[in-house]
Amino acid sequence: MLEKISEKFSDIARALSGKASISEKNVEEAVEQIKLALLDADVNLRVVRRFVNATLEEAKGEKVLKAVSPGQQFTKIVYDRMVGLLGDTRQDLQLRGPDTQSVVLLLGLQGSGKTTSAAKLAFSLKNKGRRVLLAACDLQRPAAIEQLSVLGAQIGVDVYKEDSKDAVKVAKNALDKAKRELYDVLIVDTAGRLNIDEELMGELARVRDAVKPLESLLVADSMTGQAAADIAKSFDEKIGITGVILSKFDSDARGGAALSLKSVTGKPIKFIGTSERMDGLEPFYPERIAGRILGMGDVVGLVEKAQAVFDQKQTAELERKMANESLSLEDYLEQLQSMKKMGSMKGLLEMLPGLAGQIDEERIDEAGLRREEAILRSMTKKERKNHLIIGPSRRTRIAKGSGTSVAEINRLLKKFEKTRLMMKKMTKNKKYQQQMMGGGKAQ
User: Fold this and answer.
1) pTM over 0.90
2) What is the per-residue pLDDT for 307?
3) How far apart are CA 320 and CA 317, in angstroms?
4) Three-state secondary structure of 304-338
5) Where in the sequence is the domain holding 183, given as residue range(s)?
6) What are the two backbone dihedrals, phi and then psi, of residue 95, each rounded to the nearest 5 degrees?
7) In the predicted model, is pLDDT for residue 147 greater than 80?
8) What is the pLDDT of residues 408-424, one digit of tens each?
9) Within this chain, do residues 207 and 322 fall inside the same structural domain, yes or no?
């Protein structure tokens, strides 16, 4: 996510951060590099000009040149400008209370991820206690109705569909059902085209007028860069949108769409697609994304991911086991599974300050972790509870069952022993814990 632009901005920040003083020339050179980084990220040209001019004007003032830490002050100015570019603050989805209906209309071009985003949004709202109905009003794309039906069944959300060619009629009937059966949120999935045309806009306008949505969200493919902002502007002018869902954001290395949208359209990004899973739709926080672009990480986001996965009682029990060296392979397997729920290892590491854009993907052995999980699953529960009973014959059986080798079983067991010992030291020795967390050497 945003690897290329993060790497460039992190390099710019590092080049200035160590300087005791900087000159106007230093500032001009840094701003020129920022301009090139933004253009390379496919940010809208007018947006780049405004950003660069405003940053240069503020950074060349006494506030930076005379500051105690000029490099840090310059980075703070760039960060504040970046947050403003991304939308200043988090914009929540506007919904009425649960005693009445709120309609959310999803718009977008074909292939933008509209149907999947509809299901993800429904899943998110259902988990917040909302009773959601999905309306299959994309009657143009073959299999769109079937796709929404399958996703609805997967997440446990009802889908309204008809054998019809009239999207307006289907939308109206879906709203009637929502009112009659007390669904408090209706999400309407509409048709898209490969290009914006009058026929598409006419149908969308009629659907909009029929259901009177509280939110009209454009689903835009973040991989299309600044083109996403131009598409959003067209939809806003013809239909009127209240915000944007940026799909495929986890695959976007450049960030041109995110950095262009708010300035070009005036509409906020409300959600980003962060994985293909149904829980892979996250609120968009401008300050967090700006922090990640500048190499500051997103510690708050990382903590939220951990809190959503790790139960407090389980965490306390795990700490107790680490302290008395009773941690088992069963616990190790549970932790591997919990980590998988948080996302890819690369994505998690990039949320730590200073690591954005600096991670060597080849050194992250995701495949190795999958092999470890296969090995652990090929063990019996008794073996995972007490790894000391795993002798030569058991190791051979586990290797065959997991499609690995006895050597890999041996490596995993040695690694586990070392991990267990290290964790015991961390829980018993505060100085050792500080050293492991980067707080200096233990004496």
Assistant:
1) no
2) 60
3) 5
4) HHHHHHCCHHHHHHHHHHHHCCCCCHHHHHHHHHH
5) 102-290
6) -130, 150
7) yes
8) 999 999 988 887 777 77
9) no
